[in-house]
Design brief:
Elements lengths: L1 H12 L1 H5 L4 E3 L4 E3 L1 E4 L2 E8 L23 E2 L18 H5 L15 E7 L6 E7 L17 H4 L4 E5 L4 H5 L3 H7 L7 H16 L5 E11 L1 H10 L10 E5 L13 H14 L5 H5 L3 H15 L18 H6 L8 E6 L5 H17 L4 E6 L6 H4 L12 H5 L11 H20 L20 E4 L5
Parallel strand pairs: 2-5, 7-8, 7-9, 9-10, 10-11, 11-12, 12-13
Antiparallel strand pairs: 1-2, 3-4, 4-6, 6-8
Family: Belongs to the type-B carboxylesterase/lipase family.
GO molecular function: hydrolase activity
Keywords: Hydrolase, Signal
Length: about 450
């Protein structure tokens, strides 16, 4: 009762601030206050949706966030998780997504989400939840290319989710399974995403969102996360629609590894770190462990496989098997790839084959190909032109202005077109809408694949 009175007083004191265009919302953990993002949009940055997964909580399922009583001003982004590695200077992705904010904090304390809402009256707006990519080893939810102002302008609420990465997010070991009383271990990053979806279901109505109309979408490893979650028994009732951009589909390049493989790798890491127990391994700085994983991987595997695993709890089977057995959620889907994507033939075949299977199962599924070769690459480094992996992201979010590229009028028009398709899908489960060229599901009888490009080069 005392805590409720304190919260009520805090909300009353914040009324003057809210009147100036900022909003105070009471979540299950405590009141939060937005900051202005644009003329028509507000943002809540860095809302904790779970307790910091540090110390004894490292490599455990996410726990509830610690409640607070005073209004939490959400003006700062939450920290990103320690990455496996930073992109090397001069690397395409380092250049493409170089930091555009003043300061990026890095920490194991990384379970925060961000919410963009329109200013003014809001009632039961569709909710889009974004899972960033980065090979499960890097990336952050607050990156400028994911800001939600343009999407929100089309009548949705956007949530972007931070989660555990690399060794912090996907370390597997038989002792961890025994400790948790589960069949396997690992997948803590996916557990974080599930915790965020549950948080959205419980809290988003207070922000003006419709908790029964949630679209999960992601790109690359984010799409891999989406495909893992829509086939997970833990996600029933949490996702109403899903979009996979360059990373989902039948027999795609993103797949969970077997339990024995992942746990044997964890045992090798423990031995390599000279730690006799999980408790002692928990005391090793996560960046040290990431470095050891890289060294161990290069010595034996050439790639660092702390990665989603078939643990028998979060992931119980391969995505292909889940598709064949009709274990994926019976919801509408969009899936696509880029013209110059990673392993393009596999991406294209995976998207098309999966769409055929899902439409045959009664789940309406649309396929796209992003064809626009990004302008300006040759100004930086010869040979980089093309519709590369991740090239579609700024078009989907309407964040072209955050890039150095010399956009043309057609790029801005293409971005608006894609935003309309994406937000229509979030609203109704169908990307089509008034004034848009018709986009049909990809079926055996009608192999319709939407191609996104500009007409004037």
């Amino acid at each position: 009762m005392v805590r409720q009175l304190v919260i009520l007083l805090a909300l009353l004191l914040a009324t003057g601030v809210a009147a100036r265009g900022q909003t105070v919302v009471n979540t299950e953990s405590g009141p939060v206050q937005s900051v202005t993002s644009s003329a028509e949009c507000e943002v809540f940055r860095g809302i904790p949706y779970a307790a910091p997964p540090v110390g004894e909580l490292r490599w455990r399922a996410p726990q509830p966030a610690t409640p607070w009583d005073t209004v939490r001003l959400c003006s700062d982004w939450g920290p990103m998780c320690y990455p496996m590695m930073w992109a090397r200077r001069g690397n395409f992705y380092a250049m493409e997504y170089r930091d555009t904010t003043a300061h990026v904090r890095v920490s194991e304390d990384c379970l925060y989400l961000n919410i963009w809402i329109p200013k003014g009256e809001r009632q039961r707006l569709p909710v889009m939840v974004w899972i960033h990519g980065g090979a499960f080893w890097s990336g952050r939810a607050s990156a400028r290319e994911f800001w939600g102002d343009s999407l929100v302008a089309h009548g949705v609420i956007l949530v972007t989710v931070g989660y555990r990465l690399a060794t912090a997010g996907f370390m597997a070991h038989p002792d961890l399974a025994r400790e948790a009383g589960t069949p396997g271990s690992g997948n803590y990053g996916l557990m974080d995403q599930i915790a965020a979806l549950r948080w959205v279901r419980r809290n988003i109505a207070a922000f003006g969102g419709d908790s029964t109309n949630v679209t999960l979408f992601g790109e690359s490893a984010g799409a891999g996360s989406v495909q893992a979650l829509v086939s997970s028994p833990l996600c029933k009732g949490l996702i109403d629609k899903a979009i996979m951009q360059s990373g989902g589909g039948y027999r795609n390049i993103i797949f969970p590894v077997g339990r024995r493989w992942s746990q044997n790798f964890g045992k090798s890491l423990m031995k390599y770190a000279r730690c006799p127990s999980i408790d002692s391994l928990r005391r090793v700085p996560i960046m040290t462990l990431n470095s050891l994983v890289l060294k161990l991987s290069r010595r034996h595997l050439k790639i660092p496989f702390v990665w989603p695993t078939i643990d028998g709890q979060v992931i119980t089977e391969s995505f292909g098997e889940a598709t064949r057995r009709k274990h994926v959620l019976p919801i509408p889907y969009m899936i696509g790839y880029n013209r110059n994507d990673l392993v393009k033939p596999v991406m294209r075949r995976a998207a098309r084959k999966w769409a055929l299977m899902e439409n045959a199962a009664g789940n309406p599924t649309w396929v796209y190909c992003f064809d626009r070769g990004l302008p300006g690459d040759k100004m930086k480094k010869p040979g980089n032109s093309g519709a590369r992996h991740t090239a579609e992201i700024r078009y989907v979010f309407g964040t072209l202005a955050s890039s150095w590229r010399p956009w043309r009028k057609g790029d801005w028009q293409l971005s608006q077109l894609m935003i309309r398709y994406w937000t229509n899908f979030a609203k109704t489960g169908n990307p089509n809408g008034e004034g848009l060229p018709q986009w049909r599901p990809y079926t055996h009888d009608d192999k319709c694949e939407k191609h996104f490009d500009i007409t004037e080069k």
